[in-house]
Amino acid sequence: MPICIECRYPVSQLYHVLHSGNTSARKPPPINRSTKPTPPNTAKKGEAPVRSKTKPAPAVIGGDVRLTQCPRCKRFADKYVEHDYIVLFIDLVLVKPRVYRHLLFNRLGRDNDERDPSITRLGTLLLLFDVYLKWSRIETLPPQMTASSRIPHLPILLQYVFYLIFCATTTIGQHLTIRWLAQVMGLGARSTEQDNEDGRADKGEFPIRSTPNGISTALFVSSCMKLFPILMVVWRYNDVGGSVGRGVEWAVAVQNLEALRILLECGYLGAAALVGAGWLVRWAIARVIMGFVGLGECL
Q1: d(CA 117, CA 219)
Q2: Residue 157: which pLDDT band, with cuts at 50, 70 and 90?
């Protein structure tokens, strides 16, 4: 069920379409008088009648969209319904809680733990871009730091496969750790009895029922800051020390914290514990793999 992004009150729908009084609705095309009239039915007796192949006129398309007003706070339940993706991306960068509620509950959320196809595409894009960043950073390091490893001397295809497996392993380890800890700590799985004891049901607040795929969705959506270094494709800059990469990682960690706090309603301490544990496992896996191939000093 969708919720109000202002007060989290459940609503039946986010908007409804009004067709009356709509001057911008697209009308059916005018009839072309120059066309020949349809010939009469000339089928013989006992044969099926000849049907006209002309298509029926389309119905009126379009309508005025009116946003639903929240019955509790009397504000629009979800103003982002009529906003484009540029506005959503800017508000994601600014870490606004309302845009996270819109994406996690009203647009991408699934009660049956199914993953939205757009999240699969976003996760693939983030993974491939992470491969590019990691690969380009190691190639810009001084030769003495990578002299003990055979990875830089492998063919290009094998190097790409190695970095792809490396980034996929670290990402999967981070997600599985956060999902497992959220289940162990009982976050996002409040029962009806707990809601009644806390008075949440009487207040009409939305009961949290987050799913494992919902947690991964929150992590992917809040990791869009990883796309910012794409500017290095156009403008080359010296990032040997990794200051830009570390800055992006800290920004992504802050956004992950905010997304998990909104999704699980666990407070900042609980969300920080989840994010910290996930990044610690990610760093440990990266340390083991890079140390095994002789690139341990490159992290």
Answers
A1: 15
A2: very high
* Closest C-alpha among 236, 246, 265, 218 to residue 95: 218
Tokens 């009116």, located at residue: 66
Q: Which amino acid is present at 133?
A: L
Q: Where are the alpha helices (DSSP H) in the chain?
A: 85-93, 97-101, 117-139, 156-184, 192-198, 200-203, 212-221, 243-264, 267-292
Q: How far is CA 44 from the centre of its chain?
A: 62
If we measure between CA atoms, which residue out of 126, 92, 104 comes closest to residue 213? 104
Distance from C-alpha of 142 to C-alpha of 240, rounded to nearest angstrom: 9
Taking only Cα atoms into account, the Rg of the chain, rounded to an integer number of angstroms, comes to 27
Q: What secondary structure letter does DSSP report for 68?
A: P
Q: Which residues contact 199 (CB under 8 A, 6 or more apart)?
A: none
Nearest to 216 by CA among 127, 150, 97, 98: 127
Amino acid residing at 12: S
Give the pLDDT score at 227. 81
Coil, strand or helix at 65: strand
Residue 64's identity, in one-letter code, is D
Distance CA 177, CA 171 (A): 10
Of 95-104, 118-127, 197-206, 241-250, least confident by mean pLDDT is 197-206
